[in-house]
């Protein structure tokens, strides 16, 4: 994933938030503002270059010292970023760093 390009699209408003994502944000008490903060300041912890229809990645960041994950995809040809889902990672699925998946 080209993180610089992703951030460029987000900064210039070239992104879409899926309806599913909007519902999940509301259900999980996560703001779009915090979601965008993770994209702009967070780190890629998993990259999915073969995802269809566009390559995607999992980003990690902290908001008020609490971990947050954001899945995004990037259509470089169409110059559009997509926010797929956002969630608070669980220790059931991730190690205590919230970056490493449990095996």
Give your account of this protein's structure.
- By secondary structure, the protein is α+β, with helices and mostly antiparallel strands.
- Helix content is 28%, strand content 34%.
- The chain has a single domain (3-87), classed as 2-Layer Sandwich (YaeB-like fold), CATH 3.30.2310.
- It has helices spanning 3-11, 19-28, 32-41; strands at residues 15-17, 43-48, 56-63, 66-75, 80-87.
- A hairpin with a 2-residue loop joins strand 3 (56-63) and strand 4.
- The model has no long low-confidence stretch (mean pLDDT 96).
Topology readout:
Elements lengths: L2 H9 L3 E3 L1 H10 L3 H10 L1 E6 L7 E8 L2 E10 L4 E8 L16
Parallel strand pairs: 1-5
Antiparallel strand pairs: 2-3, 3-4, 4-5
- Rg of Cα set: 13 Å
Q: What percentage of the residues does DSSP assign to strands (E)?
A: 25-35%
Strand arrangement, major sheet: 1-5-4-3-2
Query: Can you tell me the CATH topology?
Result: YaeB-like fold
Spans with pLDDT under 50 lasting ≥5 residues?
none
Helix content: 25-40%
**What spatial form do the alpha-carbon principal axes imply?**
globular
SSE string: HEHHEEEE
Largest sheet: 5 strands, mixed
